[in-house]
Specification:
Elements (H helix, E strand, L loop, with lengths): L1 H4 L3 H12 L3 H10 L2 H23 L2 H22 L3 H24 L4 H11 L3 H6 L8 H10 L6 H27 L2 H13 L1 H8 L4 H20 L4 H21 L4 H18 L2 H21 L1 H6 L3 H4 L9 H20 L3 H13 L5 H21 L11 H20 L3 H26 L1 H15 L4 E4 L4 H11 L5 E4 L6 H10 L2 E4 L8 E6 L5 E5 L5
Parallel strand pairs: 1-2, 1-3
Antiparallel strand pairs: 3-5, 4-5
């Protein structure tokens, strides 16, 4: 792979320039220093290293055994799928297929979102090395950024290419959730849960949006399933080791996507460790914690390029979520989790709390499962008090899996009493999907109001054949840069977040033919485009006489 990257002098210069963020002068010096003999020397060294590596790998019994295990695992998975009830399998595929088509529609028609544009401009477009090493803000969901680089050059258009990897991740997540629900609960319970999961607003939202939250949900679905099977395993030590490894794999997947996955992963590992102490003794607990320590080392190795280039503070000193006093955290917990309940489930916190408590009381006999679910639900406020932060509501998106699992167990426990048949499930699922699609279409207009307005501004400027636009508006600059780049527009952007005074407005009117602000100002500017709402924008022409 490295040999292909440096097949030319230009590509090698681009590689080193992107890695070290060299300026134009340094890049020119590097280009002059790389003589043809040096480039050919690097090519031969790379080829020699690749040949020696392949020779070692091809003769390694460890590698051969690894591929043999992979083959056996694939055969085992195929065998498990073939044992799934045919009615459930076909019904689940229909639900997942409808969800996929809805997500694909959103991929094609929804405007670019700020964080998506930021991801493309700062990580996807610069390439693989930047994606794995540059961490200026937590906008870089590292594994997701790497996947977007892999789909960047496909022939489907910039935005589709950017969102394609997440669309596929959402499909895999829905299939994994369908399988794990079937294994953990009953066929009828799983059929009720699947449309709820696929069409809840936050899941639909992050199924098309080019962000890493679907990877996080996928990781937690894996971890949750591993915990459920691990704590229910009464068989051999081999069975426990298998699910312990599955839990570690889910943790690596989630943690390499974003560091905040440490919250749910800590809940999983902490609960299983305590359970093992009481059920299997210290030896099993130490072995389990040792596997997770190994997983932690793998994650640290994966974050190595970021630690080398961006530094440790880029990960642990997140300027977007600044530490605050415990008193302030305590005072804001209510409003924070009210917003979280509204975002995740579309209901007030009090209604959500009562519903969950009633469901938990009905499942009093499921001691171990109940204890884990309660642990996951009560830990978020405790974590925030310890950490001293108030994060974004989307941080707790994994709780969707917990709440739906409680509902699944409730349905499984009482399905015979409520006489839940396939016809009633189909009717319920169809109504829920139709209602969810309608609500999503309405809600996304509010959620992405800014994105729609930014698209309107960009199209207006292109229609007016603008040359230079002065932007003094939060977020807008990134969206405009992305849209102009995607549409191959030559409009130049001059960006500033300084507080405007008369002198700066005068300078803007002299250098730019258009100006975009949050509110109109007095002066010789013809204001032509206005939006209201949470992100008000006004667009004016500085040379109205023309």
């Amino acid at each position: 792979m490295t040999f292909l990257v440096i097949t030319s002098k230009d590509s090698l210069v681009q590689l080193i320039t992107g890695w070290f963020h060299l300026d134009e002068v340094a890049s020119t010096k590097l280009r002059n220093w790389l003589s043809p003999s040096v480039v050919w020397g690097l090519r031969l060294l790379t080829l020699f290293t690749a040949l020696m590596g392949w020779k070692i790998i091809s003769r390694s019994e460890v590698v051969a055994d690894f591929f043999l295990r992979i083959r056996k695992w694939i055969i085992a998975v195929k065998s498990r799928i073939l044992r799934i009830d045919r009615l459930y399998l076909y019904s689940a595929l229909v639900i997942v297929g409808i969800s996929f088509l809805f997500n694909l529609y959103n991929v094609l028609v929804r405007p670019i979102f700020y964080d998506e544009a930021w991801t493309y401009l700062n990580f996807t477009r610069p390439g693989f090395l930047t994606a794995i090493s540059y961490y200026p803000l937590p906008n870089n969901h590292v594994l997701h950024s790497v996947l977007t680089v892999m789909t960047r050059d496909l022939p489907f258009g910039t935005t589709v290419n950017l969102r394609l990897s997440n669309l596929l991740v959402s499909l895999i997540t829905a299939l994994v959730f369908a399988y794990t629900s079937y294994r953990l609960f009953s066929k009828r319970a799983a059929l009720v849960l699947l449309p709820l999961f696929c069409f809840l607003f936050p899941v639909s939202y992050y199924s098309y949006l080019s962000r890493g939250y679907m990877l996080l949900i996928l990781a937690f679905v894996i971890c949750h399933y591993a915990v459920m099977r691990l704590t229910a395993a009464t068989g051999s030590e081999r069975e426990r080791r298998k699910y312990s490894l599955l839990l570690v794999a889910g943790g690596i997947l989630g943690l390499y996507t974003m560091p905040s996955f440490v919250y749910p992963f800590f809940c999983c590992v902490g609960f299983v460790a305590v359970w093992l102490i009481f059920k299997s003794g210290v030896r099993s607990t130490v072995h389990f914690l040792g596997l997770n320590l190994l997983g932690g080392l793998i994650v640290a190795w994966l974050y190595g390029p970021i630690l080398f280039r961006s530094g440790l503070n880029s990960l642990i000193n997140n300027e977007m979520v600044q530490p605050i006093s415990r008193a302030e955290v305590w005072s804001r917990l209510g409003s924070h989790f009210s917003e979280t309940s509204e975002f995740l489930f579309g209901m007030p916190l009090i209604v959500f709390t009562v519903a969950v408590v009633v469901m938990l009381m009905a499942l009093a006999r499921k001691v171990t499962q109940l204890a884990f679910w309660i642990f996951c639900l009560v830990m978020p406020p405790i974590i925030l008090m310890i950490h001293g932060v108030i994060p974004f509501s989307r941080t707790w998106i994994y709780l969707v899996v917990i709440v739906l699992s409680i509902l699944g167990q409730l349905i499984r426990t009482f399905e015979d009493r409520i006489r839940l048949n396939h016809t009633s499930i189909v009717v319920f699922g169809s109504l829920f999907i139709a209602l969810s699609v309608f609500q999503f279409t309405r809600k996304i207009q509010l959620q992405e109001f800014y994105s729609y307005r930014a698209m309107e501004v960009a199209e207006y400027l292109m229609d007016e054949e603008a040359k230079t636009v002065y932007v003094n508006h939060p977020l807008t600059e990134i969206n405009l840069r992305y849209i102009f780049l995607e549409r191959d527009s030559s409009i130049q952007i001059i960006y500033s977040r300084n507080l405007l005074d008369e002198e700066e407005v005068e300078q803007a009117t002299e250098c730019c033919d258009w100006i975009l602000l949050e509110e109109a100002m007095d002066g010789e500017i013809e204001w032509r485009f206005h939006t209201a709402g949470e992100y008000p924008m006004v667009l004016g022409r500085t040379d109205p006489a023309e």
